[in-house]
Structures are given as structure tokens and as C-alpha cells.
């Protein structure tokens, strides 16, 4: 291959055939797969592109020494202004969401409170939504700058209302944790009233849909955003005596895929988390429904059924949700992500 970085070829010492073969493979790997590196006299990369590719924003930049002795260290950082570099600060400060506006539903406890706490700690302005007014006020009081909004996610006007209040207060919505949900009544289908089904569906499916619809309208105006819906491992399996909840969580997984496709042209990502057995108030309520006389025994047996041998925590679910909301997950969209201690492996 002709050399372009100096006028005179540098003579090479004879090498054994085996060493030469290794050298040729290495050169082919560098120059063929990684790209042809044309350099000027100062050793600066002036091409930096593979076969048939034009150098553009986001391409890997390499600095190659003028003597051609070795390839320089690749600089894999995104270009200035790329979304992966926004919201970061040097010096080790944890400010992934500095200046971002987040809306979190079901924020008074459980996953919603854990995510609100993490987002606040990392620089976001959080609008906390819940229908439990007193509990919400206490939760918001512990988070700097949090805005509590009392709303029932099953009521269309109240969904539109919490979105409007977020925009009125902050002018935009960057992040949405669409989380509010209820467990509903556990019973065989033959013993459930239609009202039992409708109650769970109204919160866990219609509420998620209405939240997506309202927030997507705002995000599309700014052509960016990240959304995480709370599904469940019930979104990928069945559960006897739990049909309303299972049906609604399957709907959340489907809505997540649809919203991801609709949002993608506007730079909006949509994912879902699917928790397994997590130690929250809802989980404790379910153990009491299963066996009112021995809820602790149900809890212990359930823990033993998990390959990791325990219930998860709300903070562990928040770790996943916050990562999905961050720009570290900038190419992740349209998926429902299990967090279940390998229970469904």
C-alpha cells in the first residue's frame, strides 16, 4: 500500500516469514477494518474513514505519529454538542440530568420516589405526581426543587393537567417516568366483576396511554426526550388469579413499542422496566392477599423462588430506569427490560 505521510520509504529489517505474516495481518486489520489513515506531515489524521465512508460528525478520531511507528490512541468521545456530551460536567460531579425537567407519576413511594430521588440528586427538576396528597407532599419536601402535583392518572383531565403544570413551571419536559399503577384484586376470572377489571385497566393501561399521549405532544415540539414506562414481569407471562393486572401490563409493553416507533423520528426514546419480585408496599399487599394468615411465610417462600435468593429493591429498579432515561442509553428504545433476579431466565 503506498505511503502518504513521508517522502522517502523507511527500509525495514528482514523478518522471519511467520513474523511477517503476523505483521501483514495486523496492518490489514488496522488499515482495512479500522479505515485507511492518510496523514499529513505533522502526523495529523486527514482522512479517518473506512472504505466508502466519508468523514463526518461522530466518526472516531485517531492521531497517528508522523513516523508511522504505531497507531495512536482512539478518541471515542462524541463531538461537542452531541447528546451524549450534554448534561455532563468535568471534575467528577454527578450531573447527568443537569437542567433537565422530569415528570414522575406514582412518585409518593416505591419506584416513583426512588427515581425522583435519583433524578434530583443528578441535577434534574422533578415534577412529582401522585393521588395521595399528604404522602406526596412529604416526599416532595425532602427533594430540593421538586414540584408536587396531586392527580389521578386514570382521569383524562388530570393527566392533561399534570403535564400542563410541568410545562407551565419549567417550559418543557425532557424525561418521563410513567410509573403509577395498582395491583387490583386477586381472584379467578370466574369470580371477578367487570368493575374489578376496569379499575386496574383504567390506571395501569389507560393511565399509561394518556400519559404517553400528553407527554409525547410536548416532547415532539422540542424533538427530544426519554420515557420509561413501568411494566412488570407480568408483561411477559401469565399469572393465575391475576388476570386484570397481567392484561394491563401486557398492554404497557405494547404501548412502549408503539410509542418508541412514533417517537423515534423526533429523537424520542421509549422503554419499559419489567420488575419481578421487588420489596415494596404493593408486594407486601399482594402477599397478604395470597395468604392473609401468613403473609411473611409467603414473602419468604417467594424470596426462595428467585435464583438470586431475595426480593429486589426499589432503588435497584431505579438504577435501571434512570440509566434508560440517561443519554448513556441513547441507542436503546422500544424494549421492555426485565429486572427479576433471573426468575424468568
- Please describe the biggest sheet, giving its number of strands, its sense, and whether it closes into a barrel: 7 strands, parallel
Secondary structure: number of strands: 9
Proportion of residues in extended strands: 5-15%
Spatially, the strands of the biggest sheet line up as 5-4-3-6-7-8-9
Structural class: alpha/beta
Query: Which fold does the CATH topology of the largest domain refer to?
Result: Rossmann fold
Compute the number of helices.
Answer: 9
EC number: 1.1.1.47
InterPro entries: KR_dom, NAD(P)-bd_dom_sf, Sc_DH/Rdtase_CS, SDR_fam
Protein name: Glucose 1-dehydrogenase
Region (Disordered): 1-94
Give your account of this protein's structure:
It is a single chain. The protein is of the alpha/beta class and 345 residues long. The protein has two domains: 17-75, no CATH class; 96-339, 3-Layer(aba) Sandwich (Rossmann fold), CATH 3.40.50.720. The protein contains nine helices and nine strands. Helix content is 39%, strand content 12%. It is an enzyme of class 1 (oxidoreductase).
Spell out the blueprint of helices and strands.
Layout: H1 17-33, E1 61-62, E2 74-75, E3 101-105, H2 110-121, E4 125-130, H3 133-141, E5 147-150, H4 156-170, E6 175-178, H5 194-222, E7 225-230, H6 243-263, E8 268-275, H7 281-290, H8 295-305, H9 314-325, E9 336-339
Features:
345 residues; alpha/beta; Rossmann fold; 2 domains; seven-stranded parallel sheet; two-stranded antiparallel ribbon; 9 helices; 9 strands; 39% helix; disordered N terminus
